[in-house]
Amino acid sequence: MTLIDIFNDRYEHIGTEDKKEAHRRGSWHRTFSALAVHPRNRLVFLQKKAPVRYSFDRPDYADITVGGHYHAGESIPDGVREVHEEIGLETSYAELHSLGLRQTAITLAPDYIEREFQHWHLLPLQGDLEDIPFADAEVTGLVGIDLDDAIRLAEGTTTTIPARYATRTDLAVSYAEGRLTRDELVPSYLGLDQLYLRLFVADDRFCAGQRRHLFW
């Protein structure tokens, strides 16, 4: 059982609850998310999750680089542990750049309701895809894409872009060139508040040297 803090819809703390129960009941809780970017090479990295992680059928989308729930009692900076847990990199919260808070609610299945206060960040990386060890069993791969291509894909001016894939099996990690299609992105991140596009545009401003007011 993993306990998480739960809140009312005004982000006021009201107690703790088991994570699975919080999703079943649709309790408001908070999460940590980060999109990794290589500022000099203008690359962004997306994550592929292991199958059968949810109680419902979820396609193998190219998701945001790092994301997870805060444990009960953790502070906002404590969420940086997810970077090490999911992609195997040691970093401090001071190295991240906050993009602010996203409050969102969506029913993904009858027993899986997401009502989240999502704390979003940019995670600058200097290495290439091969330098990311991603050690979490929940992560089966990473996808590296050019930032300008990512923006075009998110805004819908193209439906497929070049991509470099890192895929983990039981034996090793393999690397291959391929293509990423718009259908492989999380649909709710394309619609509603256009989360992918807003994150990629924030990346673009960061790569251009902007360090303040990166909010979407």
UniProtKB/TrEMBL annotation:
CDD domains: NUDIX_Hydrolase. Residues 27-167 form the Nudix hydrolase domain. It comes from the Bacteria. Pfam families: NUDIX. Gene3D superfamilies: Nucleoside Triphosphate Pyrophosphohydrolase. This is Nudix hydrolase domain-containing protein. It comes from Saccharopolyspora thermophila.
